[in-house]
Structures are given as C-alpha cells and as structure tokens.
Amino acid sequence: xxxxIIRTERTDGNAVVTVxxxxxxxxxxxxxxAVDAALHDPPAGLVVDLAxxxxxxxxxxxxxxxxxxxATEAGATFLLRGARGQPARALKLTGLDQxxx
Length: 101
What we know:
Belongs to the anti-sigma-factor antagonist family. The radius of gyration is 12 Å and the shape is globular. It has four helices and four strands; from the N terminus they run E-E-H-E-H-E-H-H. The chain has a four-stranded mixed beta sheet with strand order 1-2-3-4. By secondary structure, it is of the alpha/beta class. A hairpin with a 2-residue loop joins strand 1 and strand 2 (14-23).
C-alpha cells in the first residue's frame, strides 16, 4: 500500500488537485476533503490529476464521481487527467472514462 499524497494549487483560476499513491477505502476521505476545500471558493474549473495514482478502488471512483458532481453544481468545469495503469483500467471498466471525458 502506498500512502496517498495530495497537493492543491490554484492556477489560472482553476483548482488543481494532484494525487499520488493508493486511492482506496483507507484514503478516499482525504481526497474528498481536498475537493471540498478546493471548491469552497469556487474556481472556474476543478482539475484532478491522477498521474501519480498507482491504485484506485471503488471508494476512490466514488470520490471522483462526487467531485465531478460537486464541481458541476458549483458552476465549475471538471477535468480528470493523467490516469494510467490500474486507475485508467478501473475508469474504463466502469464506464466512468466516458463520464469524465
């Protein structure tokens, strides 16, 4: 298990949440909290970068889907980027790759 690392920054009016490690049952709450904080002062867009995520289970997918919903409700665009390996396969198998575009 790889510890989840989260970094949030504001760039060009967007909130960029960069995630690394395992996004799973034990860690998904931390990403959920980071998304809430990023949307507290609604940005133009919310970008979640999964390039350094090594594993994502159903709890992680649920958080990503919730982030998409909350960003849309806040009037922000949502972009999921950088998913590869197992997280990309999980998104494809569940059809969420089509939801996130």
